[in-house]
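Issue: copy button drops trailing tokens. Both records pasted manually instead:
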Amino acid sequence: MGIIEENRNRNHHFFNEEVAKLENWSEDVRNSIKFEIKELDKEIKTCKTEARKLLNLEQKVKEQRIIKHLEKKLADKRYNQYQNEDEIENRKDKLLDEVEQRLKQQTTEIELFTIRWNIV
């Protein structure tokens, strides 16, 4: 196997490994954020249900403040979800650029020196 073919195989293997890592990482990030968003949604719904049951106005106001805080947190999580999507796309672009650079490698053959000998 020639050096060029070996280099292609190495690059192919590298690309497959990096794509797999990137896909696993991005899936983990997406699932984590989705889980956090679902949990916040549940918590907000629970707080709203409890707030409706309260009779004391002061307690209702206090509970509404908590709900507002949770809703702000939820909005931040959703915003982070879009930022993470952008980061994932940037990493994919970077990987593709790196592989593209590797594909542009050129080989040249240069004669450095010549050895001659005579058998006497």
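Record 2 (pasted manually too):
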Amino acid sequence: MFEYTLLNGIIVSSSRRVGQGSISIEEDKIVSNTEGAAGKGISVDLGGMSIVYPSFINTHDHMQGNYLPRVGPKQGNYYLNWLPWDNDLKASDTFVERSNLSREDLYLLSAYKNLFSGALTVNDHFPRALNGNILPKLPIRAITNYALTHEASSYDLKWGEGVEQEHKMAVKNKCPFITHLSEGFDEEAMNGVKNLKKLKALDKYCLFVHCIGFSDEDIQTVAKAGASVSWCAASNMLMFNVTCKIRKFLQAGVNVTIGTDSSASGSINILAEMHYDRKLYREMYGEDLPAKTLFEMTTANAAKAFWMDKQIGTLDEGKLGDIMVLKANHSDPFENFAEVEMHDIELLILAGKPIYGEMRFIDLLGGELPRGYTRIQVNNRSMFVIGDPAGHYSMCRKKIGFKKVLDYLPFEPEV
């Protein structure tokens, strides 16, 4: 059983609660988030030099597809919808090379892609029949309570039991109904919202991905329905040279989150996506996307979209201990969050269990490396990590046939 306290940190419980203090864990839950002294068990003093946040939540990934380099249209060309991209992917060297790895290999790489960026909860947008036996075995939390379709169109990949049945399942199970929507500019993509409305599958259970073809009326309709949106700007810009009308979504009060998409079209991880999104927003509108908004998109908003806001997304007492400790590089804790790089992560905790961190936190694991953990070197720091990502990386390189570099893994496995 885990019982410990992180003392003297800057605690960012939510976008409204920030302060100097401590946070205590018992078993898998946060039991105290105050300025008080240590709770039960071990205490580690952060010395006022670290900032404590809820961990990132990635609302859109395809975990079988996280391989590099990216695949896109020929220079100067862009796609009308997702289908020609899929055809290009399957004809690419990336796909051929990726085919040397098993599905299980790719899922474990993808889990570490998310882990090393601080994204400890993720949705894998594939049918449960494909990933159901794999997700519970991963070192991060890949949600298993979700309903989905590939896209609400005649040319989608026929995932799940169809829009109406999957949506009913989401309502019954109180979980998200997740689908790509308006990922392109053909007639069907442009009518995605209207089609869902006709099917009575447009409400607060919906989590829509991409939404680049939304009209102003669509945005208002989705806002009124209480649906959520996963913004995947890097993938959108590569494939279509445009992303959704993100400022209008925010102004309308839509619950906006951020997703990476697979690295075959999107960013390498949630950190790169967040940095790209902020830069793009500046270019699109000539103004800054506030760091506090980015924080909310990747924590509390995402938890709400997953119907998990009573469990994760903030550091409130009683919630699961999903914690990320970052180096304090900026006096503003939200700017510090928005500018984070992989090497700024000092400690990651999933449901109370430390799964990645600097060796100064080893006492949280009993003072020595437990079974099931290994050490790696990240930016000249010795880090403990759950599992054996270095061994897995090396094994994948052998299967591929050369020293493949995957930018979302921040270490060299042979060191």
